[in-house]
From TrEMBL:
<dbReference type="GO" id="GO:0006826">
    <property type="term" value="P:iron ion transport"/>
</dbReference>
<feature type="signal peptide">
    <location>
        <begin position="1"/>
        <end position="18"/>
    </location>
</feature>
<dbReference type="GO" id="GO:0000293">
    <property type="term" value="F:ferric-chelate reductase activity"/>
</dbReference>
<feature type="transmembrane region" description="Helical">
    <location>
        <begin position="274"/>
        <end position="293"/>
    </location>
</feature>
<feature type="transmembrane region" description="Helical">
    <location>
        <begin position="314"/>
        <end position="336"/>
    </location>
</feature>
<dbReference type="GO" id="GO:0005886">
    <property type="term" value="C:plasma membrane"/>
</dbReference>
<keyword id="KW-0732">Signal</keyword>
<feature type="domain" description="Ferric reductase NAD binding">
    <location>
        <begin position="531"/>
        <end position="678"/>
    </location>
</feature>
<keyword id="KW-0560">Oxidoreductase</keyword>
<feature type="domain" description="Ferric oxidoreductase">
    <location>
        <begin position="276"/>
        <end position="392"/>
    </location>
</feature>
<keyword id="KW-0249">Electron transport</keyword>
<feature type="transmembrane region" description="Helical">
    <location>
        <begin position="348"/>
        <end position="370"/>
    </location>
</feature>
<protein>
    <recommendedName>
        <fullName>FAD-binding FR-type domain-containing protein</fullName>
    </recommendedName>
</protein>
<dbReference type="GO" id="GO:0015677">
    <property type="term" value="P:copper ion import"/>
</dbReference>
<feature type="transmembrane region" description="Helical">
    <location>
        <begin position="165"/>
        <end position="192"/>
    </location>
</feature>
<feature type="transmembrane region" description="Helical">
    <location>
        <begin position="377"/>
        <end position="395"/>
    </location>
</feature>
<dbReference type="InterPro" id="IPR013121">
    <property type="entry name" value="Fe_red_NAD-bd_6"/>
</dbReference>
Length: 700
């Protein structure tokens, strides 16, 4: 938490610093540039270089400039002071003040008109003037306006970009208020459980977007995906609408615009390319912040990592889309300017292209299909591409004056990495006892005294083996005074490699192994003030549920009615964990164990959070003797040889509840989604307060 506050400050400081170092173009500056372009396109002066130095040390150039500014109504004292200052700053020429005050009268005295020059067939490449020039007043004004209109696009793009960042700030503040008010003032839960609140939760904050699928993926083969919840979808959609508005706002053509040679198409393409480029860059720090494990906003809002990852993905898609449109737009601009070859050879353009290409690749390499099947490969490539995206963008924008934003982005990323290392160091590298059970690994890790667990949280484990020490895997845990206990289903990655090692171990499937834990992450469910709490665990979802259940048992003084339901396939699933059920102080609390396939001992496939699992398989009711044995060994627990009907279970618990009931669940995705759907349906059919907390955090 302290770290979070520190990180929040750090983020705000680097962000504010980025903004402080950025300046919008002042209108005086732009007036002088506008006139400069007009004059340079029209005439040249003798005895001077053909750049802006002519408006400092060349009397005629200076007088023509002052005349142009006077035409555009910009010849205030402040403006002339600005000219004097910029001569000092850009060319280190100290121009006496009276050169400015006398310039206008000098123009009146000796100026020639454009008409005169035309009549003389004046050609600016051939002839250099020794007099100041009266310009065309209409054109002077137009040039100044056009330049201001053009460069205001840059400044406004920055403000619009900051607006999109502020949107996320606002969303997070609303989330923080909603979630923390329930923690700090638990009685609010009942107090504001009116019709509106119930309907709001029923229709907006709780349900899956459509139907039931939230934790379970939408199967579409190669294009399978996780669908954000309804509220996440609403937040993302509003963000997208905001981005569309922001990218289109105020991009209009100034009639007769001389800077863009009166080409509407050229001007609009350029404006749009600037806008997409700047807004894209400003969002990058937020993109990286949301992707990090140690994002301080998680502490502020109490949202899950998966929520931020969902937003990370949506921001990422649009950042890349904007980068892409920016690139296409500028390609067109270069072609219109007939500078394609030269521009594309410029370093900053090359880095921009690198960034855009890497960004586009990320969109494809990040598909769920690839993440699910080759997670570690996905992760390594994702990080490499992201590094190149960030570095490319940094080199691209640094000379355009937006380097500070990328500095903030990299700072955010670096901070996340540093905190990870610090957490690992704080945990140390103890020797864990790793044992292969039937279908999972039991990892018992001695914990340092100062390590503070989060009840219901999770940790990332690293195994000390040269081949996979760089991999981190998230697991929920149980803890006691001395140890942290993980139960890891054996899949085909690291878990399988360790299982193999254990199988090959001559002295049995158990050995000491150096590990470290990074964490804890996650938040506890706010369930300490409900009159009734019902845990529903499926398969390997048990460690976190059991940990929260035990924690409440210890705390509740029998004031809360507690119920733990655990749905497993076979008796051995229970037996492996039986030691934790031995001496539970079950007063005003019950534990129900549902064994869905009591007779089949041949399929050792457990259920775990990240898999859909077919927990719906019907119970067989052959031999139930195993179960009656269990029942007599653990008389205080209730064993059932069936799959519970969730609907009935939920309804009964709502009916039995005193005044409020929290359902907390962890288990196979399909089960969690079904439970959510059932509770969403019932939430407004009772006077009691009903809450649902799914502790499954699936981001991949
Ligand atoms: C918050 C959280 C808590 C979890 N708690 C438990 C638990 O208590 N018990 C349990 O058995 N499993 C748990 N899991 C799932 C567990 O993290 C994966 O099963 C494990 O990482 C698989 O490792 P593997 O190398 O054998 O996987 P592989 O065989 O390579 O892949 C199997 C599946 O795990 C996913 N996966 C692989 N590596 C990671 C990773 N580093 N981060 C996220 N997903 C990954 C893959 O996308 C794939 O779907 C939890 C997952 C999350 C996100
Ligand atoms: C300022 O004006 C004086 C008088 O015209 C001229 O001699 C001098 O060179 C000017 N100074 C600069 C820096 O141009
Ligand atoms: C500004 O321009 C006006 C004419 O538009 C002129 O009368 C005035 O003297 C100019 N001021 C300066 C400081 O040159
Ligand atoms: C001015 O002179 C240059 C060089 O001699 C020539 O190429 C150009 O066409 C001339 N411009 C006009 C408008 O006559
Ligand atoms: C000034 O320029 C405008 C637009 O090009 C033109 O219509 C107008 O005739 C010009 N005025 C003079 C005095 O040359």
């Amino acid at each position: 938490m302290n770290l979070s506050i520190f990180f929040a400050l750090y983020f705000l400081v680097t962000g504010a610093d980025a903004f402080r170092k950025w300046h919008p173009y002042g209108h005086d500056y732009l007036a002088h540039i506008g006139c400069g372009i007009y004059i340079s396109r029209t005439v040249t002066f003798a005895d001077t270089k053909n750049n802006y130095i002519k408006f400092c040390n060349n009397r005629n150039g200076l007088a023509t400039m002052v005349g142009c500014l006077a035409d555009a109504n910009y010849n205030s004292t402040r403006m002339l002071r600005y000219l004097q200052m910029s001569c000092m700053k850009d060319f280190e020429i100290e121009v006496p003040w009276e050169n400015y005050t006398t310039a206008y009268s000098y123009l009146l005295q000796s100026g020639v008109t454009l008409k005169l020059l035309r009549d003389r067939k004046y050609n600016s490449t051939k002839e250099r003037l020794k007099t100041p020039v009266y310009l065309n007043k209409t054109m002077s004004t137009l040039y100044v306006k056009a330049e201001q209109h053009y460069l205001d696009i840059y400044s406004n793009s920055m403000y619009y970009g900051i607006g999109t960042v502020a949107y996320w700030g606002l969303v997070c503040v609303i989330g923080a208020i909603a979630n923390w008010s329930m923690i700090l003032f638990p009685s609010l839960r009942i107090a504001i459980d009116g019709r509106v609140s119930k309907l709001w939760r029923k229709w907006v904050t709780l349900p899956a977007l459509f139907g039931k699928k939230k934790t379970a993926m939408q199967r579409l083969g190669f294009f399978s995906m996780l669908i954000p919840s309804r509220i996440e979808s609403i937040v993302s959609l509003l963000f997208i609408a905001l981005l569309i508005a922001v990218n289109a706002a105020e991009l209009h053509f100034l009639e007769g615009d001389p800077i863009f040679k009166n080409s509407r198409k050229y001007a609009l393409i350029k404006y749009f390319s600037i806008r997409t480029g700047v807004v894209c860059t400003v969002l990058i720090p937020v993109l990286l912040l949301f992707g990090g494990r140690n994002n301080f906003l998680m502490w502020l809002t109490r949202w899950k990592y998966s929520t931020f990852v969902a937003y990370h993905r949506w921001i990422g898609r649009w950042v890349v889309l904007m980068a892409f449109l920016h690139s296409v737009g500028y390609t067109e601009v270069f072609i219109i300017r007939e500078q394609y070859a030269e521009e594309m050879a410029e370093n900053y353009v090359i880095w921009g292209v690198v960034g855009t290409v890497c960004g586009c690749l990320i969109l494809f390499q990040g598909l769920l299909y690839l993440r699910r099947n080759w997670y570690e490969t996905f992760l390594v490539i994702h990080i490499l591409l992201a590094v190149f995206f960030v570095v490319g963008t940094w080199y691209h924008v640094i000379r355009l004056g937006y380097g500070q934003i990328m500095f903030a982005a990299v700072a955010v990323w670096g901070f996340d990495r540093i905190v990870r290392i610090a957490r690992i160091m704080m945990f140390g590298f103890p020797e864990a006892q790793v044992t292969l059970l039937k279908d999972k690994l039991e990892v018992i890790v001695p914990r340092p005294r100062h390590w503070k667990p989060i009840v219901g949280g999770y940790v990332w484990i690293y195994f000390g083996d040269m081949k996979y020490f760089w991999q981190a895997h998230p697991f929920t845990y149980m803890h006691d005074e001395n140890n942290v206990m993980l139960y890891c289903t054996v899949h085909s990655g690291v878990t399988e490699k360790i299982a193999k090692k254990l199988r090959a171990n001559p002295s049995g499937p158990s050995m000491k192994m150096r590990v470290t834990l990074e964490g804890p992450y996650g938040t506890s469910s706010p369930i300490e003030h409900h009159s009734d709490v019902v845990f529903v665990a499926g398969g390997n979802g048990i460690p976190g549920m059991l940990n929260e259940f035990k924690h409440l048992l210890k705390k509740q003084d029998c004031k809360q009615r507690l119920q733990l339901n655990w749905i497993i396939r076979e008796a051995f699933n229970f037996e492996e964990m039986a030691k934790y059920f031995a001496e539970l102080p079950l007063l005003n609390a019950e534990v129900n164990i549902y064994i869905t396939r009591p007779a089949s001992f041949e399929s050792p496939i457990g259920l775990d959070a990240s898999n859909d699992g077919d927990y719906k398989t019907e119970a067989k009711s052959d031999t139930l003797s195993g179960i009656s044995l269990l029942q007599s060994d653990y008389p205080e627990l209730n064993f059932f040889s069936l799959r519970p009907d969730m609907n009935t279970l939920v309804q009964k618990d709502i009916d039995d509840a005193a005044n409020s009931v929290a359902f907390v669940t962890c288990g196979p995705a399909v089960m969690v989604d079904e439970l959510r759907a059932i509770i969403v349906e019932k939430i407004d059919l009772t006077k009691k307060r009903v809450d649902f907390y799914d502790t499954v955090d699936v981001w991949n």
